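User: Fold this, then the next.

Assistant: Folding the first:
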Amino acid sequence: MTTELPPSIYLSSCPNCGGEISSFRLAKGSVCSKCLKSEREFTSVFDLVSALKANGNLNRLKTFDEIGRRFRRVAEFFRNSLGFPPLGPQRSWVLRVLKGESFAIVAPPGLGKTTFGLIMAAYFASEEGAKSVIVFPTKTIVQQGVERLQLIAERTKVSFNLVHYHAGLSESQKEEALEALKNGSFDIFLTTTRFVTTNVELLRKVKHRFLFVDDVDAALKASKSARAILEIAGFTEDDIKDVKELLKQAKTDETVYDKIAELRKKRLSDKIVVFSSATITRGSFTVSSLMGFKPGGAVVYLRNVIDAYLRMPGSEDEADQLLLKLAKRLGDGILVFVPVDKGQKKGKQLAELLQDNGIPSEFIASENTRKIGAFANGELKALVGSAFHYGLLVRGLDIPWRVKYAIFYGIPKFKFRIGETPPPFLVSRILSVLATVKQDVELARLAGRVRRRL
């Protein structure tokens, strides 16, 4: 059964001239008959632009002509960097950046979020002479980003001034990086969330076109770092205070959103801000309002990942032997996550167990580039660490080509002392888990009320 469109004429709806256009032409992705006599169907706006340009009738869609040219250059830059053009969602991210949009990416690891941010920064530096600032959660990922940008420069045969700053640098290297930042003598600057938080005054003065914040949840989990991110994006302390006051009036005065939109347009007119995250968070309403988007949102992807489980043996020795058996069978590219209640001592024991039985392994509790580098180049076959939400193995690695397997040595847990006041977001999660386990409707409602107040 086919569904035919009713014959309709839409006023002021031709995307090229703003005149009348029929429903049939709109359904074909075309423009009105005055702009293009052909009844051809278009599946790409760039093909439509080319046809209009050929007959001399390109009008409102002229901006897509320039975006199309730039997109082809970016696609070629991707191909030279990686061996293939932007794939899947990367294509839409590139187009949005080229249109000057600020937006958030919420997607699981391995879909190319960080690669996209790095290549766009390299493209802006080498092709358009624009500066970029990239913020990572840890010094380890900063170092990995530097190495990947150097590889991109080598493969594309372009040059750009790459500057980075993190706690692992020597004092002379830090001074050199700070001096370059103050003088603006850089094309791409990579740093950590911690540096941004403690150097807001300096970064506010740095002129840049592209700001890419990787793992934005880590940056926004504290109000101080969230404020710092907003300020380097271009907002002032007064802007943040004003928006908070305006939001209090939102229930009785809807025009406050127009005022916030005007402020956003003014501050972000010459910048593109992209937030990237692998998880879903509620986010700050102030950040959402100022930036015009939510840092996190529910996005579902189909992924080629097998989830499996085995019942935990009764004794610890049996559990250790089961882990060893699994690791021997899987062989390489293994991350072992140890519940926080078992402590680092247990993690070190498990790493030694694997090492002693022919599986090169290390326990990793803090940022150690040597151990991560050894895993990345294949010297180590397994890394053991804590199953903590902001732990290094959870958020501190960006080497998806090496990670093949994740083994959880028991169920991940939250840990806090009796009498300690846990963070509100943790209370919400605990209540949600309890409500699910106990099938308790009242607990679920309470968890919902806590989430709404965050």
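Now the next one, as you asked:
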Amino acid sequence: MSAALSVINLAVLARRLHDTSLLPALTPVSVGTLVYPAPTSTVEINPNWEVLYWNTSVYGVVDNSVILECGTTLPDLYIWSFTQPGTEAIKAVVYNLGRGPKIQKIAKTLGQLTIVLKSADVSIEKLLLAANGLFTCQAFYNIDEDPKVHYYYVHLTVRVPVSKPNLLMTGTPVEGSKLWMHCSVDNGTGPIKYIWKHETQNENITNLNESNSVIYVDDVKRNYTGWYHCVVSNAVNTESSDKVWLDIKFGPDDPQIDVSPKTTSEWGYTILETQNVSLLCQAMSNPPSQYLWFYNNFQINIGPKLTITRILRNGTGNYSCSAQNSYLNTSSSRTISLTVYFGPDNPQIDVSSNTVMDRIYTAVEPENGYVALETQGVSLLCQAQSNPPGHFIWFFNNSQVHTGSQLTIPKIHRNQSGNYTCSAQNTYLNSSSSRTIHLTVYCECHLQQY
């Protein structure tokens, strides 16, 4: 209420009591950081009279209701006044001088104000933020007999619920980049508490070690992908933002190539000729990688899996998988060496001599028969395709006579006529093949007969 009205009411009471000592001086009182004018702590009245001061704090919530108490019993007279924080103006809100409560216009700026039945308590419905401040109830008891004066200081703090937060993200959601997330709240009485939550694709929810309204990430990781939302709370309520999906783009990583069937050697992967072989390329990437296959630098396939049915020996070589992220325009590749093992094939035997008469076909000579002159030099060369390369063993009439691809006889004799066999062996595959020729040694006398 205004100072003038307060003095008028006190003057009325004083006239009824025939004593003007009821008019107290008003001086400011500080409550925390808020300054309000209030009566002095000493009031000169009458030794038989009593002046009491009461301080209470009440918390209200915007748009809700609150009750401000003025004693436990109904006084004979009372005046409610209001003072905004940071001002010294005392404005009357409602008073009752014995003829019923009179609500002032200022009450509409505070909410829907009524007096609680059979009391001097004030009820405020649909509380407005402007009601935040100091309410003072001056209550007068027993004014016809032994007057008593009570001052009830009610410090009303009007709190605003936190509004639903809005989660905003700025930056590029790419691995290694920078990113900001801002939890924005339009309304709410502080202090406001912030909790950040991260939900993975597996629905695992964790609280982030952040308590501010803004999260700054200077090195984004791929495992940051997931749903995010912030939870804000104050002394009134708790609200949660809508979930926002954060999709971190990355990759492709270096590809991994799985070969099936998987057999390795010191040179890389190996496979047997005519077997089926599958090569599967995988590279972590978001969005998922696209794959290209190359054989000795020539593109041969599109897709993560390369299947070769009944691979041939000419399939030996380098196989490269190129993983490509079209969104980030990035790529990575990996190359493996695949060796096709085979053989040995059937050997080929080449016979050389100055006087060798090759492939004499007679009724008594077998096919592939060779002849040579006695005392002349004869060389037999055995060749067979094989991978790994084959080892060669020579046999004369089933008896081993030499190891190596070439058998050389410097001066052949007639008793060396017979079957010469070359055995080609692939020790890695534990396989072998052989070929036999017949060599006849003639002396000069035989030639003279022809």
